[in-house]
Amino acid sequence: MVLNTDRSLETQAPPFRADQVGSLLRSERIKEARLQLASGAISPKQLRLIEDTEITRIVERQKEIGLQAVTDGEFRRAWWHFDFLEGLDGVEAFEAEEGLHFNATTTKARGIKVTGRIDFTDHPMLEDFKFLYSLAGSHTAKMTIPSPNMLYFRADLKDMPYDDQEEFFHDLSKAYKKAIKAFYDAGCRYLQLDDTAWAHLCSEEQKEQLRAKGLEPDKVRATFAQLINDAVADKPGDMKITMHICRGNFRSTFMFSGGYEPIAETIFADLNIDGLFLEFDNDRSGGFEPLRFVKRPDLQIVLGLITSKFGELENPDDVKRRIDEASKFVGLNQLCLSPQCGFASTEEGNLLTEEQQWDKLRHVIAIAQDVWK
Predict the structure, then answer these.
(1) Please, are residues 245 and 284 in contact by the beta-carbon 8 Å criterion?
(2) Which among 62, 159, 216, 275 could disulfide-bond with 67, CB atoms 3.0 to 4.6 Å apart, if both were Cys?
(3) Where does the Cobalamin-independent methionine synthase MetE C-terminal/archaeal domain lie (predicted)?
(4) Domain contains 317
């Protein structure tokens, strides 16, 4: 079934009433081609041509089902964050001793370290975006990158060539300013910062772990906000920047739990961004009460009420009731709907089929059409 995009779903600018986080399940052809590259059967150039074909297909599929914002599904990436961060000057990848731990599994081993001065110059993802932009047509090409907090929180910093942390933060923010301008110059008007670091502040257990590392949660929270605000300080007026706050997404598992109350005042009042994609798909995310701190009439809240972790479709009436609950704290005109996360934050992907993925996105659109008539 093809759903036509009704004008009732439109907002003046992104995020849209029916939106998506960004990553999509890698196709079997992409997975096969990655294995062929690793074995030497094909060249990097041949892999890129295969990626071009598969990205073209999934962009057209996004248009067909009625999404206004289209992504490349992160089809050229293995990780939602490492691939971008490794492309920054002064950052190197290495094989870590172990992978990242989720509640029921562990990722493959991978790490990044800061070995030089941080900068953004000839980043390969600029060409990735340009290809997406060439396919978007009248739709909005959405680019997703990790927030600057992810380099601060995920990278090995012990050998970085900085006299103090503030100098590092200055270069990191400056690099992101350059990245934002470069994507803007390439045609990007919708950029999303993906961030799992905030989840470390959402539960007492995680905050105790921070303290055990010698970090004070209140100072960490202030640093997160300052890094993002410094990064977006020179954002062009016609570019929309949103942030997705995630609790971990790997093979349908999660990393963190906890509601937004500990960070609510900061993310809703202090961040100079245009919208927030928030996970509300289960009890781990808490209730809507933290939305009472939303005071800005121009801040869009994207409710992640449709899970990307399994294929069963949510009862649409239940989803509508939850949107109604959220609207008690934030007016309906400031709310949007999306899946709670991407479908493949890493190349392994979540445990559902590609058709179930498209059904989930159709579900978002159909519910949004009923709510925002």
Answers:
(1) no
(2) 62
(3) 20-347
(4) yes
Q: What is the CATH number of the domain that holds 90?
A: 3.20.20.210
The answer to whether position 2 is within a domain reads no
Closest CA to 174 of 217, 99, 113, 230: 230
**DSSP tally for the chain: helices H, then strands E:** 11, 9
CA distance 171 to 118: 6
The rounded distance, in Å, linking the Cα atoms of 267 and 231 is 15
pLDDT tens, position by position, 103-138? 667 767 688 999 999 999 989 999 999 999 999 999
Could you give the CA distance from residue 363 to residue 373 in angstroms, rounded to a whole number?
A: 16
Per-residue pLDDT, 246: 86
Cα 207 to Cα 96, 169, 248: the distances in Å are: 24, 22, 16
CB burial of residue 146 (10 Å; 0-12, 13-18, 19+): buried
| Strand partners for 115 | none
- Judge contact between 329 and 289, C-beta under 8 A: yes
Tokens 């950029």 identify what position?
A: 191
Which residue, chain included where needed, has tokens 């992810």?
Answer: 150
Residue 58: CA atoms inside 13 Å, Cβ hemisphere, count?
28
Cα-based angle 343, 348, 349 (whole degrees, multiple of 5): 15
pLDDT in tens, 302-336: 999 999 999 999 999 999 999 999 999 999 999 99
Q: What is the pTM of this model?
A: 0.93
Q: Helix, strand, or coil here: 11?
A: coil
Query: What's residue 288's pLDDT?
Result: 96
Total of domains in the chain: 1
Domain holding 323, by residue range, is 7-371
How confident is residue 354, by pLDDT bands cut at 50, 70 and 90? very high
Task: Tell me the β-bridge partners of 113.
Answer: 92, 156
Which range is least confidently modeled, 67-71, 96-100, 178-182, 359-363? Answer: 96-100
DSSP secondary structure, 124-138, as one string: THHHHHHHHHHHHTT
The answer to whether 17 and 81 have CB atoms below 8 angstroms apart is: no
- Rounded to the nearest angstrom, the gap between the alpha carbon of residue 346 and the centroid of all alpha carbons in its chain is 12
Does the CA dihedral 71-74-80-86 come out positive or negative? negative
Whether residue 45 is predicted with pLDDT greater than 60 in this model: the reply is yes
Q: Within a domain: residue 1?
A: no
Q: What percent of the chain has pLDDT over 90?
A: 76
